[in-house]
Write a structure and sequence with these properties.
Layout: H1 6-16, H2 20-30, H3 36-43, H4 47-65
Length: 66
């Protein structure tokens, strides 16, 4: 598997995720390494909402880097 830098991951997220909040959640998760609980607090969302964003939109990014 190819290793990607944080700036490359950030670029993919910025390019392919159009919803601003979802971009911020993904950047916080994949680049900053925040937990689901911390993301939930930071963005005033339920843990379930955060997981949905990360799994749905994060899957789009992971498919691009494979």
């Amino acid at each position: 598997m190819i290793e990607y830098t944080n700036s490359q991951i950030s670029g993919l997220i910025d390019e392919h995720i159009h919803n601003k909040r979802n971009r911020e959640v993904l950047l916080s998760r994949f680049v900053d390494g925040l937990t689901f609980d911390r993301l939930s607090e930071k963005y005033d969302l339920s843990v379930r909402q955060v997981k949905n964003i990360v799994y749905r939109d994060g899957d789009r990014i992971l498919r691009l880097i494979k």
